[in-house]
Design a protein that fits this description.
Layout (H helix, E strand, L loop, with lengths): L6 E3 L2 E2 L11 E5 L5 E6 L9 H4 L3 E3 L6 H12 L14 H12 L2
Antiparallel strand pairs: 1-2, 1-3, 3-4, 4-5
Length: 105
């Protein structure tokens, strides 16, 4: 995401090698233009579980406005059709459609 320009660190484009420190604000551009904002509370140099990692940051994303929420609900309802789980392996057409969706065409 950093290479794609979708991550900002303290309002500047983030690079993959950039180190973060407590107090930094990271903004991540999500799907449909939604921006996630998190504030770094602490850092660690070892691998930890998800539950412990959640203690290292604070989500400061403002809630969506009513207009934004209505748009997100409409997008969610009009989203791509998904296959029912456990209906076997996808056929040739489904594979092609899935590949195109993943590649963003």
């Amino acid at each position: 995401m950093c290479k794609g320009g979708k991550v900002d660190l303290n309002r500047h484009a983030a690079k993959p090698h950039r180190e973060v420190k407590p107090g930094d604000v990271i903004e991540i551009t999500r799907q449909f233009g939604r921006r996630l904002r998190v504030k770094v509370v602490a850092v660690t140099d070892k691998h930890i579980s998800k539950a412990e990692a959640r203690l290292l940051y604070e989500d400061i994303t403002p809630p969506p406005s009513p207009e934004e929420q209505a748009m997100l609900d409409m997008i969610r309802l009009a989203g791509p059709h998904r296959r029912a789980p456990r209906t076997g392996t996808p056929d040739r057409r489904e594979k092609r459609r899935l590949r195109q969706e993943k590649e963003g065409r």
